[in-house]
Amino acid sequence: MRRHLRAGVTAGLRRWAVGVARSPKAVVLVVAALVATAFAVTPAYADDPGLNCAATATATISVTPNPVTFGRTALVQWSADCVANTPEDVLQITGPGFNPTTTVFPVGGGSQSVLITQTGTVSWGVTVIDTSSDTGFSRGLASVSASVTGVTTVPNLSGDTQVEAGQALSAAGYVLGAVGSVVDCDNVNRVSSQSPHAGTVLLPGSSVSIKIGKKPAPPAQCE
After folding, report:
1. Among 43, 111, 182, 191, which residue carries the largest CB count within 10 Å?
2. Backbone φ, ψ for residue 120 (5° rounding)
3. Where are the beta strands (DSSP E) in 131-185?
4. Residue 126 in contact with residue 143, Cβ under 8 Å?
5. CA 149 to CA 74: how far, in whole Å?
6. What pLDDT digit, counting tens, does each position of 40-57 carry?
7. Rounded distance, CA 154 to CA 195, Å?
């Protein structure tokens, strides 16, 4: 009985092998079917909970106010969720006020006030990262942009008296810094130079230093 059973199985295997040998395409189809079935049954992240979250995460990010104001703070807020997040999963926030190379945040909600020191348009983004050593998978989730208004520049103080220079700076939102002197026969008792230069984009509240022109020490004279 056992001999007949083994003979039957052996004969069946031989017939299958002959059929495969005669049809190479059958080999490809069988292998492809097995691979597809394996992936359909076993998700790529089945053995990696960190990747599970990174692959399914969604998020929002916003900035208030929008547009933002140069030299003032804005509030960046974000919220992210995913399937079964673990300590391996973190959020990376990029943009003004954030250092993505040194600081990450847990999956969930968060906010941070940032000082606007750039001009033009500023942007922030939120990315989810699976920090586990076997994947290192990351995916950008959301971003927000805002134009910068209220940009201020240093006024031209050339030819002003020290008092006038201080008033001009105060009106522009700056303060008078160090006051020095330099030989300048064309601007005696008036601003000969300033630092930063006129037209420089500078945060409100910053100081601007000046040098007041003076006559040369005798016996030299202004011509």
Report:
1. 191
2. 80, -120
3. 138-149, 175-183
4. yes
5. 12
6. 444 445 456 678 888 999
7. 9
Short-list 164, 155, 157, 168, CA closest to 191: 157
Query: Residues, the chain, total?
Result: 223
115, 75 contact by CB (below 8 A)? no
| Segment 87-104, tens digit of pLDDT | 889 999 999 999 999 999
Query: CB of 82 within 8 A of CB of 57?
Result: yes
Beta-ladder partners of 176:
208
Q: DSSP assignment, residue 188?
A: B
Task: Judge whether 216 and 222 are in contact, CB under 8 Å.
Answer: yes
Q: Strand pairing partners for 126?
A: 93, 142
Consecutive H or E run containing 135? none
Q: Which residue has the tokens 């391996």?
A: 88
Written as one letter, the residue type at 188 is V
Exposed, middle or buried by CB within 10 Å (0-12, 13-18, 19+), for 87?
exposed
Token pair of 221 as six digits = 């004279």
Please say whether the beta carbons of 65 and 109 come within 8 A.
no
Provide the greatest CA pair distance for the chain: 132
Name the pTM for this structure. 0.71
End-to-end CA distance of the chain: 130
